[in-house]
What we know:
mainly alpha; single chain
Amino acid sequence: MKTLTKGNVYLILAAIVWGMGLVSQQTGMDYLGPLSFTAVRCALGGISMLPLLWVFKGDDTDNKQTIKASFICALILTSLILLQQYGLLFTSVGKAGFITALYILLTPISGVLFLNKPAAKKTWLAVAVALVGMYFLCLTDGIDGINIGDIIMIGAAIIATMHIHVVDHFVTKVNPVRLCCFQFIFVGLICIIPALLFEGDVLTIENIKLSAVPILYAGIASCAMGYTFQTIGQKYTEPNTASLLLSMETVFALLAGWLILGEVLKSQEYIGCILMFIAIILAQLPEKKERTEVK
């Protein structure tokens, strides 16, 4: 399997896991606050990955560099997750999904402006098609107006862009599975103290038990599996293409609603799915120069 194709598969798997996790992220705050839910699920996600460290040992022996990279990624990821959780309290899921997914446009733009990473013409075309596709997927009823939740989600899109670039920087320097594992353990540790201070009244064993199902999925599937797929996938795929592949999360969220909850897609949403798949095909058209693997 070619490295580019291998990376694409991992990134699409991440999008599937995250798309199906939308329900768990919503219901997880029925009994827990954003800080406490994030602390518990990320700690669980990191701990559940510990056995994988023995399976995917790799050649990374620089523990100091791994810890440093994991902590930096954790700081950014903590901001991203909390912005998403708080934003969902004030805006609709459709608008939140569209606004956050703007990282597929911000990733190549920021790469050009700040990292001197030129984007291929096919990437810009794919981004444009994907944005139109997500409009049909998420904003079929139009925009009623910008609220505080929308502004928070714009911040989440910016942070998501930063996370993709930072992961891209570190993923070829350290073991990607270790990076992902320690990243989530750090996120859990970062959130636990403010959760106890500001949400101590809801952060109880009883509420954790009531939220067991969304915590388990959001922790083990969305965190451990999803972000591991993202981290490994980005080792073989350049960040512009990675952001487009990860944006398929929106499509899989709709498909999960149809398959699991029996929701019927609107005609506009089918159009959006088709446009998103076209964007993915455009993003995967062969380049003259492939990204080389760093072991």
